[in-house]
Every structure is written in C-alpha cells, then in structure tokens.
Write a structure and sequence with these properties.
single chain, 4-stranded antiparallel beta sheet, about 35% helix, Dna Topoisomerase Vi A Subunit, Chain: A, domain 2, 3 domains, Rossmann fold, DNA primase DNAg catalytic core, N-terminal domain, alpha/beta, 18 helices, 9-stranded mixed beta sheet, about 500 residues
Length: about 500
C-alpha cells in the first residue's frame, strides 16, 4: 500500500450515507455559523437552497470505522452533487482561521458546483469558489465553479460547449493567470469567452457583493466592459497584462519570490533563490547518484515543512527510506538494506526521520502505474495538506507511456513524458524535479526533452579523491530561472550524503 493510500481523506463514497450525514449537519447549524454566513452575504434562504450544514465538534463517528470523527469541526458544510443531482461529496469551510480553509470529504474534482444551471442557461459565469456561486445565485445570475480545492481541467471543457462564458477568478496574480489559462481551454469549445476583471482591492465576486453599494449593477457593468474590450481588441495588446507583469517584478524587487531551498547554497544562488514553479531535469549516467541526490533534496524540503511527493519507478519505498536512514546515521545504504545495523540505531534514526516523513509522500510505482494515476494521487495529497507540493520523479526512462498514445519512437516517448511533467508544473504552479539517465558518452539531454524543461542540471564525475568520496560537478546547461553555471559536489557514498 502506498503512502497516499494510507493517508486517504475518508472512506469510499459507498461507505457513507451522505444524505443522512448532511441531514445531521443541517440540524447542527447554529448562531456562529449563521453569523459567518451573514458576513459573507449568504442569506438563510440560500442556506436552505444549498442545504448548508455545520459541525461544531465531535459527533461520535471515527475515521478508522469508516466514519468522520471531528473531521469537519467548526466548519460550514456544503454538498457537491453529481450530474444526476445526487450528493457525492461534502466540503467544509472553516469559520475561523484554521487551515486548510476548505476541506473536502473525498476530494472529487470531476464535478461542477451548481452544474444544473448549465441546462437552464446559455450564459454562465465561471467563478473561483463556492461562495462566489452562491452570491451570484442570490442575484439570479447563473454561475458555476469547480470546488475550491480543485482546478479547472480539460474534462470540464465539454460542459460549456456552445455557451457564452464569463470567467471571473480571484483578483490577484494567480487568479488572473488562471482566468487566462481557462479561457485558452474554453476558446475552441464555448460559443464565446470573456474574462471579467474586478476593481482593484476587491478579492473576488463574493467580496464585491459584500463591499459594493450596488453590487449587481457594478457586476453587470464589469461584464459589459469585458464584452466591449473583447470586441475592440480581438487580440489583446500587452497592456491587458501589464498589471500582472508589474506585480511579478515588484515581488522580485522586494525579494518575495517564493523559492524553495534545495539545501545547497550555491545551487540556490544559480536558481535565483531555489526551486520555483517549472520542470527541473537532473541528468547523469547510471549509478552516479541521481536518485540519492533527489532524495536528499526531498528530505530537506520536507524537513522545512514543505509538502513533498516522491514518485519512483526505479526504487521501492523501503529502498528510499533506507537511503534516508543511512544518511541520518552516517553509514552506507547497503548496511541498512542488508540488515547490518543495530536495531537501536535504526530506531533512533527513524525517530529523526519522522520529522521528515510528516511532509513526505513516497509513491512506489510499477510498469502498470500511469502518469494519470500518479496525477490523481498528487491531487488528493494536495487536498490533504491544503497546498501544492514539490514533486520529484525518478526517473523519466522508467515511466510507462499511455497505450492510447499511438506508436512513437523512444525519443518521442521521452519528449511526451517531459511535456506532461511540464504541464503539471503549470497546472499546479509547483516545482517538478525529474531524474533522467544519460547513455555512456552522451553529455546532454536530447533537444526534444530539453524543450519542455525550465532547468537542466547535468551530473558529471570530476575525479575520485578516495574510495569513499567522489568529486562531482553539477552543470546547469539550461536555466530559465537564473543563470548558467556549475558547482562542485562531493558524493559520500559511505554516508549516503552529498555536500558542496
């Protein structure tokens, strides 16, 4: 069983009576829940219409018995329905400051909230969240959204076939980028698509309706402006995105770029502070230490309380764990793998590893494990932790190609896999770090694979200092996130450790 399977959100849908459970939560709704909803501009009529419930504390159910315990404690609970109107998921929104703000029961992402409105209207507003939708429904404006923990994907596109869609995501940099991404997906399927831009200082649609004096008039005016802008400029000039560009520059100027340390200072400097969103390829010949270096970086990030997912088609979960334990103790991994270490030492090292493992998920994959299956696991883990993880892939040549992809050459297969990983980094706005093997005599990654990469790092042997430590050099031959360069590394195989 993989780590993601052990840390499931909840029982399978068939194991719980969601109708009965929701009815229970509806009976628990009380003053503090109504007070929160009223602050968000949600009326009692809407509470009844969407069957919003509340959980104040433990109710006598327990997770291990396929029940819920205090899973939704201090959260208003909103049901998600499938396309037959049946409840298939519940989402709890914290009414205090606890994280994650939105906590789903199952994390299903294939459904749209308020989907039924698409059968009634040829025009619809595609919002960023549940409260945006309920706010517009109160104003008699047709609206839908993907649940707050999910993202809009290609399988949602067909639902908007022939519709006029007004896209209005959050009013920040990521929201505006998301609006543009969704618009590009819908462009060839929807009848018309428009991006609605909210006024400055307004966070989202719900915030607009709470704060504006005449919110519905303001919103209709914004919609009309988006239509007029599209008619006047079928191909938008750069000034449409100038605010986004300025925000990005100011973040860099203030040193606010969200970079994650690799644990190697010189590498972080070359990477403009560390790992950012994008695809990073770590290439090298066989047995040079790519997997061990990836695992060391992954452990460091997890120790820094950054969620990490390590996917391996090459090593088992036990073999990966053994490398971490060996590094903590300061011995060669073979001693752990061979059972040659005193149990007390391993037990103590495992206690230290617990600090790492709380934010680390290792997914042991086989020849039958597709990238689609891995992506589904990653999404569920992201729901659990309430933020996007750093993804490590070991390694490209082991990943099976989807059978429906048609006949491809080996190079085309590798290029297709790299492209998929690049799309992951864009969709989830996170770093994806993948190892790739070089053949003997090959000194760089093929151009078709490099095309998808933001950063290419080549591990090369420099010279052996002794039988235990090997001098390596890590060359950055492509770097969209900083500068080209190289840094020396010492590989201590007797300690499962890399040092600068």
């Amino acid at each position: 069983m993989t780590n993601s399977e052990r840390k499931r959100l909840a029982p399978t849908p068939a194991a719980a009576d969601l109708e009965g459970l929701l009815a229970y939560y509806q009976k628990q709704i009380r003053e503090e829940a109504f007070f929160y909803l009223q602050k968000r501009g949600i009326t009692e009529e809407t509470v009844e219409q969407f069957r919003i419930g509340f959980e104040i504390g433990k109710i006598g159910f327990y997770v291990d018995q396929n029940q819920l315990g205090d899973y939704f404690e201090n959260r208003v609970i909103i049901p998600i329905r499938n396309y037959n109107g049946e409840i298939v998921d519940l989402i709890g929104r914290a009414i205090d400051h606890r994280e994650p703000k939105y906590k789903p029961l199952y994390g299903l992402d294939q459904y749209l909230f308020n989907y039924a409105v698409l059968e009634e209207s040829d025009e619809v507003v595609l919002c960023s969240g549940l409260f945006d939708v309920m706010t517009l429904v109160q104003a008699r404006v047709p609206a839908v959204c993907v649940p707050d923990y999910a993202v809009f994907k290609e399988h949602h596109v067909s639902m908007f076939e022939g519709k006029r869609v007004y896209i209005c995501m959050g009013n920040d940099e990521s929201g505006r980028r998301e609006s543009s991404r969704i618009e590009s997906l819908l462009r060839e399927h929807a009848k018309e698509t428009y991006i609605v831009i909210l006024p400055e200082t307004i966070r989202d649609i719900n915030d607009l309706f709470v704060r504006a004096q005449n919110p519905i008039d303001t919103f209709i005016r914004l919609i009309n402006q988006s239509v007029e802008a599209a008619m006047l400029a079928p191909v938008a000039p750069d000034n449409k995105n100038s605010t986004i560009y300025l925000e990005e520059y100011m973040k860099r100027y203030r040193g606010q770029v969200a970079s994650l340390s690799t644990g190697f200072t010189k590498l972080d400097n070359l990477l403009f502070g560390g790992l950012g969103s994008g695809l990073y390829l770590l290439a090298g010949t066989g047995s040079i230490g790519k997997s061990m270096l990836l695992k060391q970086m992954a452990d460091q990030l997890a120790l820094d309380q950054i969620p990490v997912i390590f996917v391996s088609w090459d090593l088992t979960n036990f073999e990966l764990w053994a490398r971490s334990i060996a590094r903590i103790i300061g011995i060669a991994p073979q001693q752990v793998l061979g059972g040659k270490v005193e149990p007390d030492q391993v037990t103590e090292a495992n206690k230290q590893y617990a600090k790492i493992s709380k934010m680390l998920w290792t997914l042991e994959s086989t020849i039958d494990t597709s990238l689609e299956q891995v992506a589904a696991s990653i999404e569920r883990i992201a729901v659990i932790v309430g933020r996007e993880p750093v993804i490590f892939i070991d390694h490209l040549q082991r990943i099976p190609v989807h059978k429906q992809s048609g006949p491809m050459t080996w190079q085309q297969q590798q290029a297709a896999i790299a492209y998929t990983l690049k799309q992951w980094s864009r969709e989830w706005n996170c770093p994806v770090v993948a190892a790739t093997a070089l053949e003997f005599g090959q000194d760089t990654v093929t151009e078709s694979v490099q095309a998808s990469a933001d950063v290419v790092m080549i591990m090369k042997s420099n010279e052996a200092e002794n039988n235990q430590a090997q001098a390596l050099v890590l060359e950055l031959t492509k770097n969209r996130n900083g500068t080209l360069g190289s840094l020396p590394l010492q590989s201590h195989m007797d300690r499962a450790l890399f040092t600068e």
